[in-house]
Design goal:
The chain is α/β, with parallel strands linked by helices and 247 residues long. The protein has 9 helices and 8 strands. Helix 8 links the parallel strand 6 and strand 7. The structure holds nicotinamide-adenine-dinucleotide.
């Protein structure tokens, strides 16, 4: 794979790098997208049942158990080479921020430290009134326990449909985007708003925007460089080309 000289130069000289990831960044770890087909990890995923507050309130036990199962499955999977390269980049730039739409915790497990989770984290919990769960609650039970603070049901700390993104996290993501020198979008379809507006914000504020995705997206025409390929394959090659080191 041959990389553009300007791309390599911008990556080498960038002090402030943002990696912005979507479901595509975790596919090579074994977590497909929601549109992954009939054998998908998210098989039987019905949005209204499993990804809305009403779905949860209508059938708390079923939804609770479904997320417990997904969480266990994810725990058994490993970060891929793409996640590892993003974590290693911390040794090369003074500031590296990962902004992710994924809920799988794989960036943290790869070693990334500044991770902004726009859609929450499947391994964390809060109650329906958004009180975070303390360690004193037994979460291994088969039905959602009650919040010790307000008595409402405890639920996974993920952003469901019709819910707003956590405002403070979105705000930090916007700041990181407009402060970035290089903004790398990886495995994002660019269909999910407001997250999809971040690359444009970065670009308007002077960042060099790189997109890594095997498919084309709406970002293609705005990105300074588009690398067509899989994150776990392109990222190690890019690392080698930029830093002259193997992973
Ligand atoms: P999406 O809208 O984020 O699209 C996935 C993108 O990844 C597509 O553009 C596809 O071309 C690209 N892609 C496919 N293989 C790739 C690879 N190997 N490397 C790089 N890019 C690749 O997917 P979605 O499933 O509709 O997700 C919508 C939202 O659902 C996400 O933003 C996320 O919040 C959530 N989700 C999370 C996970 C997870 O935590 N791992 C998985 C599925 C969905």
């Amino acid at each position: 794979m041959i990389f553009d000289a300007l791309l390599l130069d911008r990556l080498r000289s960038a002090n402030n790098v943002v990696f912005f990831t979507g479901a595509g960044a975790s596919i090579e770890s074994g977590i497909p997208t929601f549109r992954g087909g009939k054998d998908s990890f998210w098989v039987d995923f019905d949005v209204e049942t499993f990804a809305t507050l009403d779905g949860f309130l209508n059938n708390p036990k079923q939804v609770w158990q479904w997320y417990a199962q997904r969480r266990l499955q994810i725990q058994g999977l490993q970060p891929n080479l793409g996640h590892q390269v993003m974590a290693r980049w911390q040794a090369k730039a003074s500031k590296v921020t990962v902004i992710t739409q994924n809920i799988d915790n794989l960036h943290q497990r790869a070693g990334s430290q500044a991770v902004l989770e726009l859609h929450g984290n499947i391994a964390q919990y809060k109650c329906v009134r958004h009180h975070p769960v303390t360690t004193s609650v037994d979460l291994t039970v088969s039905e959602p326990p009650l919040c010790p603070q307000c008595g409402t049901l405890i639920r996974p700390n993920v952003v469901w449909f019709h819910e707003a993104l956590p405002a403070s996290t979105l705000n930090l993501a916007e700041i990181a985007s407009f402060e970035s020198d290089v903004f790398v979008s990886i495995g994002c379809s660019m269909d999910v708003q407001p997250a999809a507006s971040l690359p444009y914000l970065a670009s308007q504020c002077g960042a060099y925007v790189l997109q890594i995705n095997p498919e084309s997206t709406d970002l293609d025409e705005y990105a300074h460089c588009n690398l067509r390929g899989k994150s776990g394959e392109v990222m190690p090659k890019l690392w080698e080309a930029v830093w002259g080191e193997c992973l």
